[in-house]
């Protein structure tokens, strides 16, 4: 092992210092801009908005999911995960208004099931559902279930 | 994993450590200033007492190296009367010293190994729905800004499997300390694309900033100086490998210090900007809302569901979180046990969110290792190894066995 006395000169050259300083300043500027004015679209520089929204203590909590009538004649809850259809719940929720406006997008869920799990029962009809929990002084109370969109799967 | 971190010992720029190990920096002033150059003693003429303290710390023969550096720093204030210029200069120097502390190569080399192994774990276990997305119809693909501007194609099976192969292969090579630049840049670019794909389906995660920064700064440290160490015997492949990896390279360089500092700043920025986002999006009344109740109601586990009936606990948690996030830059000021406790708080926080709402933020948590004196891990491990081996090979142990003892057999 090297001893202290043998250690090498560790200072950066002027050029090495300059580009690192420029990169540092640039990256910090982009991060500050992203946090102050950017949106998630600016990933990875966007604002750190996880759980940053305000929830009214007497408001509602929506929890969305997809159900499916299958070729086996059952109605199941679609597994919105990497093991299931490959699309997590958060991503369906991120495109919720788009899917409600264009229910045909749900066809992608059925196609994904077909491609990823050909041996399992396939989807015949898809239901985009939501459970709405009403908060009362921050304590969850009544739950109402609504259907936001339905889609008859094309084969 | 992170329990090995002893953050207070992390060799901060101003910590009093043997100055001999960093002969190239302004050792005399170093010994008098604290981290982040908070003290502007840079511009102050050295005091005799300071001189004394430096001398007592120095190893034999290093005083000569220190002396030449003391003079230039103490000169500008003498007699010029230009106070503002001096302050500016001192500020610039302090800034430089803070962003470019000389740190041992081994610390970054060990961090590099951990980070690249973590990336493999990440794409297999955490951000693991990119390969499935190669098989999902492209209608749901909504690329975020950068891939949109670069016109990256929508993921397909070929793209996602190629990215996976590049990331796994590159990570294994870079983790071994080989081809740090080539493998490092390949992983950085492929992993960035990997994340772009994952974030382009309507939901963006915010836990990868520190890891991403680490992947972009680690290749910049390049090869270790011990790579060309020819003292190891020819054919000693393992020794050659260790020399190449730099795991034992204690030479301090500013390029290593900058890389580590960038990761540290990225970790802290993740928390600090989270507080900012809460104010920006949720408003100043965010801590008084029911956001935690919302999270537990939707994602709660058996451990956290009962807490929904005690909303004051969740409100207290909201206050604690936003305050801790806003104060997170304090970690750069804290020292020793206080710093360790502060980092420990965040690791406990991540464990709590994992147990209560299955959100772990591991890619950020692993970034805290950039504060740890990782170069000591190897020494500690080999000490333990020697002790264990010593205990096992002691004659007493042999006697305990049923085998007859036949010396020289």
Provide the succession of SSEs of chain B. HHHHEHHHHHHHEHHHHHHH
Structural class by secondary-structure content of chain B = mainly alpha
The overall strand count of chain B is: 2
Which range best describes the helical content of chain A: under 10%, 10-25%, 25-40%, 40-55%, 55-70% or over 70%?
A: 25-40%
Instruction: Determine the strand fraction of chain B and express it as a percent band.
Output: under 5%
Query: What is the molecular shape of chain B?
Result: globular
Instruction: Give the low-confidence spans of chain A.
Output: 1-8
Describe this structure in words.
- The complex is a heterodimer of chains A (155) and B (409).
- Chain A has four helices and four strands.
- With 155 residues, chain A is an alpha+beta fold.
- Chain A has a four-stranded antiparallel sheet.
- The longest helix of chain A has 24 residues, at 14-37.
- Chain B has a domain at 103-263.
- Chain B has helices at 27-30, 48-57, 63-74, 83-99, 105-126, 130-133, 145-149, 157-175, 180-198, 209-217, 237-245, 254-282, 291-299, 311-326, 336-357, 362-365, 375-393, 395-400; strands spanning 103-104, 252-253.
- In chain B, strands 1-2 form a two-stranded antiparallel ribbon.
- Chain B is globular.
- The interface between A and B is large, with 65 and 84 residues.
How would you describe this structure in keywords?
heterodimer; A: 155 residues; alpha+beta; four-stranded antiparallel beta sheet; 4 helices; 27% strand; extended; disordered N terminus; B: 409 residues; mainly alpha; globular
Map the helices and strands:
The complex is a heterodimer of chains A (155) and B (409).
Chain A: H1 14-37, E1 60-70, E2 75-77, H2 89-94, H3 96-101, H4 107-116, E3 123-136, E4 139-152
Antiparallel strand pairs in A: 1-2, 1-3, 3-4
Chain B: H1 27-30, H2 48-57, H3 63-74, H4 83-99, E1 103-104, H5 105-126, H6 130-133, H7 145-149, H8 157-175, H9 180-198, H10 209-217, H11 237-245, E2 252-253, H12 254-282, H13 291-299, H14 311-326, H15 336-357, H16 362-365, H17 375-393, H18 395-400
Antiparallel strand pairs in B: 1-2
Helix pairs in contact in B: 5-8, 8-9, 10-12, 12-14
